[in-house]
Structure formats: C-alpha cells, structure tokens
Amino acid sequence: MNLARLLSLILLVFLCACTAPATEEKPAPGINIVTVIGAIHGQHRRSDGYSLSILKAAIVRFNPDIIMIELPPERFATASANYEQFREVRETRADDFPELTDVVFPLRQELGFAIVPVAAWTQKIADDRRAALAQLEKDSARTKDLAAYQAAIAAYNKAVGGRSADPVFIHSAAYDSIVKARQEAYDKLFGNDLGPGSWQNINMAHFQKIGTALDEVKGQEKRVLILFGALHKYWFQEQLAARNDIQLRGAAELFAD
Fold first, then answer.
1. Partners of residue 227 on adjacent β-strands
2. Which of 66, 102, 116, 174 is the most exposed place for a label (fewest CB within 10 A)?
3. Which residue(s) pair with 225 in the sheet?
4. Do 43 and 82 fall into the same domain?
5. 67 in the same domain as 118
6. How many CB atoms within 10 Å of residue 204?
7. What is the pTM of this model?
8. Range of the domain at 178
9. In whole angstroms, what is the distance from residue 157 CA to residue 163 CA?
10. In what order do the strands lie in the sheet with 223-229?
11. Per-residue DSSP letter, 230
C-alpha cells in the first residue's frame, strides 16, 4: 500500500471517529439501519453549504455497509467497470450526478461498502415522458393545468426560500411537506398523461427495486444508505416507515455541526 493511500485511510478512520453521533439508539437484533440522503445533483458543485465535501463527510459519518444509488442497473454496470479500469466513471447518466462520480465511487475504494443500483428510469420512459410534456405544453385545453402547476412551483419556491442547498433543512419534515405538496399537485394534474414516467409510477418503480434490495439483506444488521434526488426522499421515507425489519433514521444529524 502506498503512503498516499495509507494516509487517506487514516484520515477516513479519523473522520468516522470524530463525526459519529454521540449517541445512537441501538436497533433490535436482526434489524437493518436505513437512512435516506437527498442529493442536489449538479448544485453540489456550486454550493458551499451542501458541497460534495459536506456530502462526503455525512456519508463517512453514517459509515454504510450498502449505498443504494440513483442509477439503473445497466448504467451502473458500465459506470462501475469504467471506474475499476480507469478510475473514472465515464457514463453519461452518472456524469449528471456528481454525488456518484466524485463521492460514492471514490469512497467505495476507501470504505468498502457495496453499491446497489435501484433507479427504474429507462431511456424509453424518459423519451416518452419528454414527448408527453411537449404535447401538454402545446395543448390549449391544458393551459389552466399548466398555470396551476406553475403556481405550485411558485408556492414551493417561496416556502423553500433560500434554503434549497441547506442540508439540514433538506432533511427536515418541513422540507418534505413542501416537496410533497408540489409533487402531488404535479401528479394530480399530469399523472394520467405521463404513464410510467408519472411521479407516482416512477417512484413506485424505484421503490420496488429498493424493497427488493432490502429484502435481500433482511436480518443482517446492515447500515443502508439510500442516496437519491432530494425530491424523492419523502416518498421513500413514507414507504420505508411501513417496514418492520428496519430502523429508519433521519439524515439531518449527519449534517449537524
């Protein structure tokens, strides 16, 4: 092992020791610990308050055995193979998510957690959704619906204020409530038009993969981190709360000073 890698490992061990929560409720035997971290994708690169280094520190603090990520399995296979060979992800979809390219893949080399891809998006779903939205924008009969959604976005922006890159706020019940109001308005107005790409349907498809992955480690006392776009967080947490084989923990404490 070269000196640089050794020093990196020592630093990560130090971070885990120094940033771990002072007290942590111990789950019952056989229970997995699960948390959901909401990512802000490209905004991580432009944010001081929720930078990639802050996200990295939160992940190190949680010390996961498994990270479930927002990539479809086939995209992950390409990204993972590229990273193993070139130390670069080199996958177009993953490149949109610096939380993966700059944080998760490099950290896997240091911490040794498993990465499980759980996104259900396909190119066809994305293309069909884009085409349906383009048609909706041209349909004069849906002008009121489009205006209603713009009003929901305005209400969301006002409620969030300047906190869209504040990780403690993003991981609060208040944020989840604001996002839920916006996204449910969207789904009520356009869900029937978007088919598999609707908000409800795509989250159901994502969560089916998450649930299957959790079933595969049931009873193993693993620490599981689900890392997805922040808008998805409330939806996943609501489903996770119904499981009796996990202890669901909020992620806000991972970002506390």
1. 37, 69
2. 174
3. 35, 67
4. yes
5. yes
6. 14
7. 0.88
8. 125-197
9. 10
10. 114-117, 66-69, 223-229, 32-39, 246-249
11. G
Question: Which residue do the tokens 């996961």 mark?
Answer: 64
- Tracing tokens 């396909």 back to the chain, one arrives at 122
Q: Is 133 exposed, middle or buried (0-12, 13-18, 19+ CB in 10 A)?
A: middle
Find all residues with CB under 8 Å of 191, minimum gap 6, and list them. 198, 199, 200, 201
Burial class (CB in 10 A: 0-12, 13-18, 19+), 25: exposed
Q: SS3 sequence, 79-112?
A: HHHHHHHHCCCCCHHHHCCHHHHHHHHHHHHHHC
Q: Count how many domains the chain has.
A: 2
Q: What span, in angstroms and rounded, lies between the C-alpha atoms of 219 and 246?
A: 9
Does a structural domain hold residue 16? Answer: no
Helix (H) or strand (E) segment spanning residue 125:
helix 123-138
Write out the chain's pLDDT in tens, 257 residues: 454 444 454 444 444 444 444 456 788 999 999 999 999 999 999 999 999 999 999 999 999 999 999 999 988 888 888 878 777 777 777 778 999 999 999 999 899 999 999 999 999 999 999 999 999 999 999 999 999 999 999 999 999 999 999 999 999 999 999 999 999 999 999 999 999 999 999 999 999 999 999 999 999 999 999 999 999 999 999 999 999 999 999 999 999 87
Evaluate whether 80 touches 115 at the Cβ level (below 8 Å). yes
Query: Are 99 and 223 members of one domain?
Result: yes
Q: What is the CATH number of the domain that holds 83?
A: 3.40.50
Task: Check whether residue 184 and residue 113 sit in a common domain.
Answer: no
